[in-house]
C-alpha cells in the first residue's frame, strides 16, 4: 500500500470508505470506454486510446486514473504528465485536446481531484490543469474568456442544414457547391497532411508529425475519417473528423492559399455536415477557438454561438499559470519567423516542438 497522498503503479489511494483511486492499466480499456460512452460528460477526448497515442507518438507519460467503488468504475481522469525543457511541465487532462477533466459521480470526482494533487506533489509538477467545460472547484484558478467551443444540432435533411447557415455565409457555401471542386471522405491522411501542414505553417504554428494523423486513424477506426476537397484533382482543403455519441467533431483542418479563393474551406465543412448527417449524427461540434481570432469569427458567421470553456488550474507554491498560447507576446517573434520557413523545414522541426505545446 502506498503512503497516503501517493499514487504508484498498481497501488490504491483511499479517498473515502467507498471510493478508491488507482492507476489505469490496459486491462481497463473496455470498461473505461464503456463508462465514457455512457456518461453524459464523457467526450471523445476521454476515450482510452488517447493514452497510447500520447505515449507512443510523443513519448509523454500518461497517468490515467480510475476511481472504483465495489470493483466498478465510478469515475475516470485522463491525466498526462507533459514535460518540456522549452515549455515547462505539468499534469494536464488532457494535452492537445479540448477537454478531459475528471468525470464520474461527486464522490469519484472528489477522489480523482485528490489523487491528481497527490501525484502533482509526488512528481513535483508546478501545476495541474483540468480542461473542463465549467469551473466547479473552490480554491482553484479558472481561466475563462480565452477559448470557446461551438456546437449546434445537425438535421438529417441537407436543405434544413443549409437554411440554418446565416444568409451571407450560405451564399458563400452555395457558390462553392456550384463550382468545379470535388469532395470525398477518405481513409488515408496524405492529402490532409499536405494541406494542414501548409496551413499551420502559414499561421506560425509547429505542425504535428504525419504519423500522429496516421495513428489517430488507426486508433479510432470508423470513428475517424478525413474529408478532402480537391481542385482539378489537387487537394486544397481537408479536415479530420471524429465521431462520438451522435456528434461529429471536425478537428484538424486546413487549406492552401488557393482554397480561400475557391471556397474550398467552406465546402469542406458543408460536405462534412452532409456526410455526418448520412451517418446519423445529430450534432455538429465546430471545435475550440481562441477569442478574437479569425477562426472564432468564422464559426459565428456559420451561425454557431460560443460556449466559453473554463479550464481549471491548481498551482504548486510559487508557480504561475502556464501561458502556452499564441497570444502570449513572448512568442511573437518566433511566430513571425516560423511563417517564413520553407515548408519542408517547418515539417521537420515542428514535431520536436509540438510535444511540449499542446
Automatic annotation (TrEMBL):
Q: Which SUPFAM superfamilies match?
A: Acyl-CoA N-acyltransferases (Nat) (SSF55729)
Q: Which InterPro entries match?
A: Acyl_CoA_acyltransferase (IPR016181), BioF2-like_GNAT_dom (IPR038740), PEP-CTERM_FemAB-rel (IPR017469), PG_Glycine_Bridge_Synth (IPR050644)
Q: Where are the transmembrane segments?
A: none
The BioF2-like acetyltransferase domain, residue ranges? 168-300
- Name of the molecule in the record: FemAB family PEP-CTERM system-associated protein
